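Minutes, project check-in
Item: structure for the 343-residue chain
Input as provided by the requester:
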Amino acid sequence: MAMGERRDQARELPERAETLRLDALVPAEFADQRVDAAAARMFGESSGISRSDIARWLKSGALTLDGRVVKPKTPVAEGQRLAATIERAPRFDWQAAEPLDFPIVFEDEAVIVVDKPPGLVVHPGAGNPRGTLVNGLLHHRPALATLPRAGLVHRLDKDTSGLMVVAATATAQARLIAAMGDRRIERRYLAIAEGRVIADQRVELPIGRDPRNRLRQAVRTDGRPAATRFSVRQRFAVHTFIEAELETGRTHQVRVHLASLGHPLVGDRVYGARGVVPPTANAAEAQTVRGFPRQALHAAALAFDHPLSATPLRFAAALPSDMADLLQALSGERRSDSSARQQ
């Protein structure tokens, strides 16, 4: 089933003020950090709040620590309460419906599972106020406009393809978010990395925002815990086809962990891809590899218990054509490991 089959006009809702209510206790992992850094990590990922927003609210007294106005550099302690009620104009339109085409793998009254194509932004944001997955979902299921973040439970980067689950009711969203936090949603990716990954391995390295580039994440000692299991599917002379299973769900997790091993994804210039070309590639194969336009990453498998019925659900999404073409180009290389597992 594809989006965009209905012919009703895109629905525009008038802009209105957005009320943000922040109220949480500082967890042990953030103890002794600056209050602006801790608050940004506690609230930013789920609400689109930046560290500069946090600093501004602290300075104005809108955001308090145990009811007190404090400076952004004030250290926090475990169990202290950060709280604020803030009115702000919506920066982006999360309620405009647009007819967009993308596959729906499964849907019922409670959940929608989509196979996001590469290049599609998940939700409105800076530089992408419209034309996102959320806008398309609102066209397909207008009632999603009543849910926080239009029912999103997790997200994929713009240039990552594959499976996402979206909640269609408030109950389903709460239960799926809880399941995600408890690591009861299985997510597996297929990736093509530069270099030869020698063996299957589990990488457990904390991840946080890169202090030198806010568009990147980095392995940091003060980052959030992150763990990924990598399995080699196929080795080539200077590339590796990999399956990655997430144990946690940090921003750019697969990309950061592979780059930390010295194996950035093909096409991932943000994390150090060099455009490595197979030594035996012909001109066409070299162009396919060197010119790959995105990070070679695909969310291939998703499994979870239905949030209402508890029925186990499992979904798989075939490798998109661009990654299949990339593997085909790499298959012209002289195989150097005949025992490598096949897809």
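Outcome recorded: The mean pLDDT is 87.
No further action items on this chain.
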